[in-house]
């Protein structure tokens, strides 16, 4: 029977073994040939001696050839052990070698974790996946997903599959469409999430549902996002927001313990308003403090024109401490101002609390007493800098929030081995749709408002709070959930509020409203992005490095070459015609 390349130890001495795997490295010295044989479990050194028939064959082995060897385990000679390898005390003296397949010369070294152009890695994904870090990531991913399933199974949730070809039920993004051959002119949508189907499963009486499922959103790819992603999707009946939060938090605690051996503390909770005011973000990174401070009153009498005009327009001046920032040169500060501008700032004033005196980009307007007040407010010390952002309140907070992450990164405060989870609650039910100025759901239109707030729907929709909660981790939103509207009458009110005509409502959501009419229980749930969870768990990797076959940043699968044109006949069978490219 084949042994694993990661398992043999000194206690296996003299055992007859069979190993199979890939040639990681071949070294010829002292008349012997050494091969590091690799499989997914690890590396074992195998040795070919010149008096064996296999020797001449071994001389021709090259990187990534696939071989099988039979031989016996022996201790490595004293002084040649490799303490970095779990198998480093032993080697296998080979009696028989079988070359199972040869490999072409790889386009990059599989046995080194060198930086290789990402597109090349993706084109030869099977070689990239042989490398240690990606093997590790996918194995951790397996353990995380398994722990999730175990957790929910213990809590009597059942996994139910929902279809991939569904009706478009928009969740705020663009749908991927699949033309129907049998129904010319009609389209399926690929699910952006199983939202309505899981709600219907509650109406069907399943009570506790979970699914590890793929979701598709036709968005431009972003650094921490893929258009195709995997969600842990959960829904419960007869529950409160508190119960959903308890289940999801316990799940993550269980997963971290089972997959990473880490005990997580209880997750802190922040209201949406608190998160924005304190961190300038609804997904704050809580691995570090650096709380933002509003310092309007320090400048109440200022002659500094920019601050003056912002304050007279009811804007805000936000201060951010930059630990150790006083060491920056003027040039560094200029570059930091540019970074702030790229993050949406109109400008940025800096105050450096250098040991040899205070310096500032607005020293004329920031006197000693202002410095003392700023220092106290921002809890800054000599050696730190204070960055100031002035703008309309929301805009100033948003920029300061982004710069908080930037500063933390530079100050080395974003430790990839620290996991700071948190809950953000009390989101507004609606936000302003930038394009139309009208209300748009902050989460999705199926989210229930806080108890007793229906009366505000007509009069003051923007004041309404939602029973909507997000889980965040190290500055990433892992996912959102909500208590749902379970009465058709109220669901119709929301659709009307969002400007949908009764015909549009019937066309898009008629099936769902009918389902709500047949005894829908109160219910709620949540979905968490598994790719992101794994990405943070492995220590803030690139999201593409935790997915076996990701798309590149142009949304292409460069290994398979997708998307790609198809034979014209296939397009005609779908009753479609490809329009000439736009000029
Ligand atoms: N369906 C939502 C999403 O994918 C999550 C939820 O409300 O359960 O973001």
Task: Outline the secondary-structure elements.
Blueprint: E1 2-3, E2 16-29, E3 32-39, E4 42-48, H1 54-59, E5 66-75, E6 90-101, H2 118-123, H3 125-128, H4 132-154, E7 158-159, E8 177-179, E9 187-189, H5 195-203, E10 208-216, E11 228-237, H6 241-260, E12 269-271, H7 272-279, E13 293-294, H8 305-312, E14 316-322, H9 330-342, E15 349-354, E16 357-360, H10 368-377, E17 385-391, H11 393-410, E18 421-425, E19 430-432, E20 439-441, H12 456-459, E21 468-473, E22 476-483, H13 488-497, H14 502-516, E23 523-529, H15 530-537, H16 568-573
Parallel strand pairs: 1-2, 4-6, 7-10, 12-18
Antiparallel strand pairs: 2-3, 2-5, 3-4, 5-6, 8-9, 10-11, 11-23, 13-14, 14-17, 15-16, 15-17, 18-21, 19-20, 21-22, 22-23
Helix pairs in contact: 4-6, 4-15, 13-14
The structure holds aspartic acid (ASP).
Aspartic acid (ASP) binds at residues 171, 193, 195, 480-482, 525-527.
Show unreliable segments: none
Proportion of residues in β-strands: 15-25%
**Helical content class:** 25-40%
Mean pLDDT: 95
Give the end-to-end Cα distance, rounded to a whole number of Å: 63 Å
The 3D shape can be described as: globular
Radius of gyration: 30 Å
Count of DSSP helices?
16
Present as ligands are:
aspartic acid
The biggest beta sheet is recorded as: 8 strands, mixed
Lateral arrangement of strands in the main beta sheet: 7-10-11-23-22-21-18-12
| SS-derived structural category | alpha+beta
E-strand count? 23
């Amino acid at each position: 029977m084949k042994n694993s390349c990661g398992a043999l130890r000194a206690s296996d001495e003299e055992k007859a073994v069979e190993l199979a795997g890939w040639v990681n490295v071949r070294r010829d010295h002292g008349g012997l040939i050494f091969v590091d044989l690799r499989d997914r479990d690890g590396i074992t050194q195998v040795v070919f001696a010149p008096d064996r028939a296999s020797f001449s064959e071994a001389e021709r082995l090259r990187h990534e050839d696939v071989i099988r060897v039979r031989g016996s385990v022996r201790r490595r000679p004293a002084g040649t052990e490799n303490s970095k390898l779990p198998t480093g005390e032993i080697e296998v003296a080979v009696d028989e070698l079988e070359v199972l397949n040869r490999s072409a010369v790889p386009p990059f070294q599989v046995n080194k974790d060198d930086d290789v152009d990402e597109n090349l890695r993706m084109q030869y994904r099977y070689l990239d996946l042989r490398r240690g870090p990606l093997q590790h990531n996918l194995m951790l991913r397996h353990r995380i997903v398994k722990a999730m399933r175990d957790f929910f199974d213990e809590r009597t949730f059942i996994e139910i599959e929902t279809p991939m070809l569904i009706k478009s039920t928009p969740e705020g993004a663009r749908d991927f469409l699949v033309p129907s051959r049998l129904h010319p002119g009609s389209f399926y949508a690929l699910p952006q999430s199983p939202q309505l189907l899981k709600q219907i499963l509650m109406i069907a009486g399943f009570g506790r549902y979970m699914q590890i499922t793929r979701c598709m959103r036709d968005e431009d790819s972003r650094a921490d996002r893929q258009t195709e992603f995997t969600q842990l999707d959960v829904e419960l009946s007869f529950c409160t927001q508190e119960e959903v939060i308890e289940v999801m938090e316990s799940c993550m605690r269980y997963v971290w313990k089972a997959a990473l051996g880490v005990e997580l503390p209880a997750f802190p909770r922040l209201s949406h308003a608190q998160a924005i005011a304190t961190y300038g973000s609804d997904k704050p990174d809580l691995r570090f403090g650096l709380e933002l401070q509003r310092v309007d009153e320090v400048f109440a009498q200022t002659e500094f024109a920019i601050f003056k005009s912002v304050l007279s327009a009811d804007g805000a001046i936000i201060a951010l401490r930059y630990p150790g920032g006083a060491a920056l040169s003027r040039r560094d500060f200029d570059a930091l101002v540019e970074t702030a501008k790229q993050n949406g700032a109109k400008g940025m004033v800096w105050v450096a609390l250098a040991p040899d005196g205070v310096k500032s980009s607005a020293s004329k307007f920031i006197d000693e007493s202002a410095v003392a007040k700023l220092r106290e407010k921002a809890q800054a010390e000599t050696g730190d800098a204070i960055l100031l952002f002035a703008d309309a309140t929301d805009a100033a907070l948003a920029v300061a929030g982004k710069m908080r992450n930037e500063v933390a990164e530079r100050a080395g405060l974003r430790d990839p081995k620290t996991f700071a989870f948190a809950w953000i609650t009390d989101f507004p039910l609606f936000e302003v749709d930038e394009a139309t100025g009208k209300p748009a759901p902050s989460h999705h239109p199926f989210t229930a408002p806080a108890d007793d707030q229906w009366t505000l729907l007509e009069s003051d929709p923007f004041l309404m709070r939602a029973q909507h909660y997000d889980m965040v981790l190290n500055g990433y939103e892992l996912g959102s959930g909500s208590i749902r509207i379970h009465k058709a009458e109220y669901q119709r009110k929301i659709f009307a509020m969002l400007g949908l005509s009764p015909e549009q409502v019937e066309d898009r959501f008629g099936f769902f409203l009918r389902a709500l009419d047949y005894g829908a229980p109160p219910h709620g749930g949540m979905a968490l992005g598994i790719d992101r969870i794994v990405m943070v768990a492995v220590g803030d990797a690139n999201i593409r490095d935790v997915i076996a076959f990701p798309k590149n940043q142009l949304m292409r699968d460069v290994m398979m070459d997708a998307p790609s044109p198809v034979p014209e006949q296939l397009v005609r069978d779908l009753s479609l015609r490809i329009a000439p490219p736009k000029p």
